[in-house]
Design goal:
Layout (H helix, E strand, L loop, with lengths): L6 H17 L3 E5 L5 E4 L3 E3 L3 E2 L8 E10 L10 H7 E15 L3 E8 L15 E6 L4 E7 L7 H13 L10 E3 L7 E2 L5 E6 L3 E7 L1
Parallel strand pairs: 1-10, 3-7, 4-13
Antiparallel strand pairs: 1-2, 5-6, 5-10, 5-11, 6-7, 8-9, 8-12, 12-13
Helix pairs in contact: 2-3
């Protein structure tokens, strides 16, 4: 057993790796958190697109600041500075989550903003986030990136160290979700949501 992780955690990550290999799909990134796992390339959705909720169990959304890597991250020695240096840009994202399944944690879709922002241009540890609904953009919930382990850089570095123990590396081109800075919000067909990060920009999605 790998020190610091339960046999269940090890088994879950192994299942996800095996499932990805069996389906011959490309891994486009990873999500951090207690139900961490790979994000397949087919899970990513463009800003403003419509997502079909058919077949999804208890769909909810969370607001996250996504990190897109320009360089590979080191493994067990990864630090917050390594993450900052390797990050090409950050973008707002809305993660659609459902009841957790073994092959890709709880994530079903990831909507990425269309305006990249340099990680050096903002204070990553203190970015306000707002999730609003409808075309009138009624505020549903607010949050701050500081809720993600004090700094999402810390969450990404921790993820890199964690998965390295299983032979996994976070690589250039991967999109990393460090964790939600807002509470999860239930969604239904016909809903429209927009997430905004102060100084970074926004991202929108509709559901059918």
């Amino acid at each position: 057993m790998v020190i610091g992780f339960t046999s269940q955690e090890i088994t879950m990550l192994d299942v996800r790796k095996r499932a990805a290999a069996t389906r011959r799909v490309a891994i486009g990134g990873y999500k951090a958190g207690p139900d961490q796992g790979p994000l397949m390339t087919g899970m990513f959705v463009d800003d403003g697109d419509t997502v079909n909720l058919c077949g999804l169990c208890h769909p909810r959304i969370e607001v996250e600041l996504a990190f897109v890597l320009g360089d590979d991250l080191p493994g067990q020695a990864c630090t917050e500075l390594d993450v900052l240096d390797a990050t090409e840009y950050v973008v707002p994202s809305i993660e659609l989550i459902t009841d957790a399944i073994a092959d890709n944690a709880s994530s079903a879709r990831v909507v990425l903003g269309s305006q990249p922002c340099s990680p050096l241009a903002v204070d990553l540890a203190d970015l306000g986030a707002v999730l609003s609904s409808g075309y009138s953009e009624v505020v549903v919930t607010r949050g701050n990136t500081g809720a993600v382990l004090g700094n999402p850089l810390t969450a990404v570095a921790r993820l890199a160290r964690h998965v390295a123990q299983f032979g996994v590396r976070l690589q250039a081109g991967h999109t990393i979700l460090p964790g939600s800075c807002t509470r999860a919000v239930d969604v239904s067909a016909g809903d429209r949501y927009r997430a905004e990060f102060a100084g970074v920009g926004g991202v929108s999605v509709e559901f059918c």
